[in-house]
UniProtKB/TrEMBL annotation:
Superkingdom, taxonomy of origin: Bacteria
Entry-linked PANTHER family: CIRCADIAN CLOCK PROTEIN KAIB2, KAIB-LIKE PROTEIN 1
Source organism (scientific name): Phormidium pseudopriestleyi FRX01
Domain KaiB, chain residue ranges per copy: 173-254
Protein name: Circadian clock KaiB family protein
Length: 257
């Protein structure tokens, strides 16, 4: 029986991609035509600052639900499968896809690809995926990847949503070179500006390029300090002087005219 207050279309395909740390990004596709796995991986790369899309997650940390119309009976049918590693999230999956108490079947995918020893080989390259950022993000469309929505969860599940989930917020990265007095002054000034000027939550990650040159290369950072706004899209940056507050506020899109 269809819930009259449901926010989902009557027929759709839903794809959820988890990380080993427990973050979740998902989509709902009424057309059932888009290659959502690739899009989810690409956005997850952007969101967490990964060196490349984490395609290796797809066979191991994916759940898919399909709600379709049976041509013979005229009844809406539902099939739902999930990788063995994400079956423990069934309650969360049912909440975001509005499936009540649906029991998810184990996906018939190769267990060799999802062997813990195989997955462990990716951990050094993608350490962010093994961290829990408490993200639950819905990707609205491939044409507008900047639009994300928090799911309408029950109070029992709502605790998994973080106040820092940037539905309306900022993800920033500050690339510096070493722990110096200049770095400390830059951080102090930047934190003060963000606290006083932003009306939304923000996450600021400081990256020392002398310790993590691969992250600087991936972000195309060639000089320090560099402030990069990762979210909301588009990605923008300031290189060099971070004393100009108007320039920073303009980067964030919150400069008052």
């Amino acid at each position: 029986m269809k819930n009259p207050s449901s926010s989902l279309p009557p027929l759709f395909k839903g794809i959820a991609l988890f990380t080993p740390g427990g973050d979740l990004i998902y989509c709902i596709d009424p057309s059932k035509k888009n290659r959502w796995h690739l899009n989810l991986c690409a956005v997850l790369q952007e969101w967490l600052g990964l060196i490349e899309p984490p395609h290796f997650l797809v066979p191991c940390y994916t759940a898919t639900v399909d709600r379709w119309l049976d041509p013979y009976t005229g009844q809406v049918q539902t099939s739902a499968i999930a990788s063995a590693s994400v079956l423990r999230y069934q309650a969360l999956l049912n909440a975001i896809f509005e499936m009540d108490d649906l029991t998810w079947a184990v996906a018939p995918w190769s267990e060799e690809l999802c062997h813990p020893m195989v997955l462990a080989t990716y951990r050094q390259q993608f350490p962010q995926l093994w961290e829990n950022h408490e993200l639950i993000v819905r990707l609205e469309s491939t044409a507008d990847e900047g639009r994300v929505h928090p799911p309408n969860l029950s109070p029992k599940l709502r605790f998994t949503l973080s106040e820092q989930t940037p539905t309306q917020g900022y993800v920033l990265r500050l690339f510096v070179s070493g722990h110096t007095g200049a770095t400390e002054r830059t951080l102090k000034t930047l934190h003060q500006l963000l606290e006083e000027s932003l009306g939304y939550p923000y996450t600021l990650k400081v990256i020392d390029v002398s310790k993590h040159p691969e992250q600087a290369e991936q972000a195309q950072v060639s000089a320090t300090p560099t402030l990069v706004k990762m979210w909301p899209l588009p990605v923008r940056r300031i290189v060099g002087n971070l004393e100009d507050q108007d320039k920073i506020l303009n980067l964030l899109g919150c400069l008052k005219s």
